[in-house]
Amino acid sequence: MISEITLFDFQSDAVNYLLDATTDPGTKHKIILKSPTGSGKTVILLSYIDTYLGNVNAERVFVWLTPGKGNLEEQSEEKMRALFPHAKTGNVHDVLLQGFSPGSTYFINWEMITKSGNTALKEGERKNLFERITDAHRSGIFFTVIIDEEHLNNTSKANDILSALSSEHEIRVSATTKKISTAEFYEIPEEEVIASGLITRALYINEGVDISEMDDLDSEALFLLQMADDKRKEIKAAYGEQGEKINPLVIVQFPDMSDRLIEYVESCLEDMGYTYNNGLVSKWMSDEKINTENVTEHNNPAAFLLMKQAISTGWDCPRAKVLVKLRENMTETFEIQTLGRLRRMPQAKHYGDDRLDFCFLYTFDEKYKEVAMQSGNAYEVRRLFLKENCRDFTLVKEVRNQDYEYVNEREARDKIYDYFIEKYKLTTDKAENKNRLEAYGYIFGTKIFSRYRSGKFQRLHDITDERQGQHLEISYEVSTHDHGIDCLHAVDMVKKDIGLPSNKTRAILQHLFHKMIRSNKKLIALSNREWYAFMINNTYKLREDFTEVATLPNLRQMQYLEKKREPFKLPLEDFYRYQPYEPDVQVYEKNAYQGYDTSMTTDALRSTCEQLFEYELEGRDDVEWFYKNGDTGQQYLSIVYGTNISKEYLFYPDYIIQKENGDVWIIETKGGEVQGKSKNIDRNIENKFIAFKEYAEKENIHWGFVRDRNHKLFINNTEYSEDMSSPEWVRLEDKF
Length: 736
What we know:
By secondary structure, the protein is of the alpha/beta class. Helices cover about 30% and strands about 20% of the residues.
């Protein structure tokens, strides 16, 4: 029996596409459906399943996997029972108790089968999930897997389950995904979803914001809340004019680690008449929920909902019409998929009134990005096993000493001071120093300068087009109270590359630039308010300068690093990414792992230099075997290196080579040159070179950095030079 439900044309087209794709023997195993938020993807998938069972194969079993947030598997199963009362459904517990029943659809929470220690994967009195899958295969059952919100499902155990199911097709569905070469791809046009009335006609960013109002702005947060509240009242009046009993909701979204900002917003809302006590404010945080019961209902009294970045998958609140996106620092970037929560129309129709047919965003984030959170499924993973002749090979690896933290605050301060003096030609004349730094783009004064974007955007993707909308600049006087969080995050941005905690980084910045801190390393003497504004306005420039100081080569690093040494053996088994549809695959016979082939060394997985080097190794008669080291992890070969200010890190050289004569080589590949310009992007390359050289001398092994130029390979193991025309870089075959 096939139920008759009314679908929009774009939904019917999607159902027909899935039917064609899953009945065509020439279709690829994976099928990606990109479905905009609010387009009714659950209805599309349920209609597809019902039609398939009714017309193609009534015995097929569908396994519907959902992410672990928001009880999405229960919502999907309930919707199937409501729309298709005759459908046979079940969950993971039904599978464990009774096995898979032909013609059924099983809704399974992804985390229930991937978290360690869960019931679904335990050996015990009942047959576990793997055994039930095996039983189903033996009885002739065939599976089709649907992965809902596919970007959230990416674990090694998940791959084990998917491999065990051995489905004929894998349908992966998400609003944020991209086309990949290893899968069929179908995208529902956003314009058709808009035309259906299911989602808003367009998005307004900062609608009604007047730049002239910004001159004396005390707080971005307060201003944005007031703008959002005014818009909310307009929308509520418009609903009243249409005879609708809908109370529009403002979502206030906070970044992570923003407790002080939350308290400030709560205080602002209280001054505006909105509190938890009067029921007009709700809070939905992972550790605290206030007034959240029935908050999604159309006429719920809550006018503001406070939440952090991770809105539960499947959370549906069509009355949400306005989003206030707060930023804790001046450089945070806004993620577009959050806007999908605003786009649903409460009654699935447009009214012909922009106040109701549009959604509204208020934020001062200048940069916008659409993050397609792929689950890594552009590449498959294959487990390889180490060859017998490589299993006794041993080396020594270096690891960080967890009990050791050398970074010297005074030494770091002095090096940063000397760097500024040399780079910007500064003197003891602080006024002149200010002029010189200003000439290089540093901003001074007591005003904070910021940019924001304004305009009408019909499609979410339009926001990523920098040519659309207006880019406006605002400035307002700094407040050490209101902008304390912004200053704190500016310090946090700067500290990342120097290895000091926030309090010590702040102390260095005050020694250099704050007049209230006595120091003989003073570059400029700023007042407290000037220093706050200086930090917020110049975060990126300060971070760039501090990073450059940290990555300068330090020939003395080995004198103070207290490294630990541990034995290293090649892993007995390892996982390598590969492209399954790569044509003309050839095995590397000289690789240390059985089955390592050219599908694992495509240009999507290896750099040009790495590809050339592996081809070279495979063709050399004097090479017994070679090993491609991992990028990070305790099981791989690591070497400790230090930065210019004594912070220690690990790097993982790319290759270990055993030659026929017994010589051992370790090689690190780097970006080479194209038309005389360096492709190297590793700013710590010289410090790694220094550490690598010291390690090789201590362990008595051969080593080198290898780079490519004009499709030829060059090696250097003497003194580092970025310029590949220098005599330090010689042809690989002349030394290796």
